[in-house]
Amino acid sequence: MLNETIIRIAAERNIIVHSSSGPAKPPVSPVFPLLIGMLAISFAPILVRASDAPVSVQGLYRMLFTFLMMLPFGGKQLRTLHKINRKDWLLLLAAGFFLALHFLLWMASLTYTSIASSTILLALEPVFVMIGAFFLFKDRPGKLAVIGMLVALIGAISIGSGDIGLSQRAFFGDALSFLGALAVAVNMLIAKQIMRRVSSYLYSFIVFGVTAACFAVYNVVRGIPMTGYPAKEWLVFVLLAIVPTVFGHMIFNWLLKYVKPTTISMTVLAEPVGASLLGMLLFREMITGFQLIGGVFIIAGLILYMRAEKLEADSALHVDPLPAAIAE
């Protein structure tokens, strides 16, 4: 428990544990890569909507191409694969399965509901992670975090009730996005455990590979063709790997070395805002009153939740003096 507390304090203060080497600050201002990352992830639903290929094929090539792009940068880390024990391999397989399930459900939701509803509901992921951490790891959230969760859920109900008034089809899409957020929350809870023992590169590399394999199996079982698509579709597949994945999520993973996790967490709010604006511009999808009200509640709830996380982290920093192991 003491070691976990020390590591947590070090992470929040951006201190490198047991090492005096390493950059004290990023080579460029974090603002620029943060803006690139937020813009990049906003294009994910736009690219999905632009493709006519089945979502399971889009998901397959998004993960496969990202996996292949990571391969040349593995270096020494790939030579340590044999050190991963059987239990961790099972967790990695489970993480890949739930990531595939997340992509399948969320990407499919864009066929039925609007970009705004789908991405706003997907932003509930931190709330589901909090609930899962409570039941699995006995992490007790503070009152402010619980209030934030309730406010966000009220927003989700508002969006769902508004869309069911529009059509059963839109409500079904909302349900898919909601379940997609649950699936990725399970993925994150697994990651929370395994990344204590496996590097972030190996975790992402293996999980992306497993996710691609899950999509391949799904396509074979369902008889969905994985080849024979026009050049336009292959361009979308490549862009899905490069734009929201490499220039989005992988930039955020890199920034974790230099900025607080809560700063990265705030970017979850960028995707529904940016994607909704792009949906209005490119697909003429106007935001309804229920979506606007629900979106405000969800974003407000997430801000409260992240504020609670920051307050909890700050309270953990009131340890003076710092343990010698990290006072570097």
TrEMBL record:
Its main location: membrane. This is DMT family transporter. It comes from the Bacteria. Belongs to the EamA transporter family. Keywords: Membrane, Transmembrane, Transmembrane helix. It holds the Pfam family EamA. It is found in: Endomembrane system. The keyword Acyltransferase does not apply. InterPro entries: EamA_dom (IPR000620), EmrE-like (IPR037185). The chain crosses the membrane at residues 31-48, 60-78, 90-109, 115-137, 144-164, 170-190, 202-222, 234-256, 263-283, 289-306. It comes from Paenibacillus rhizovicinus.
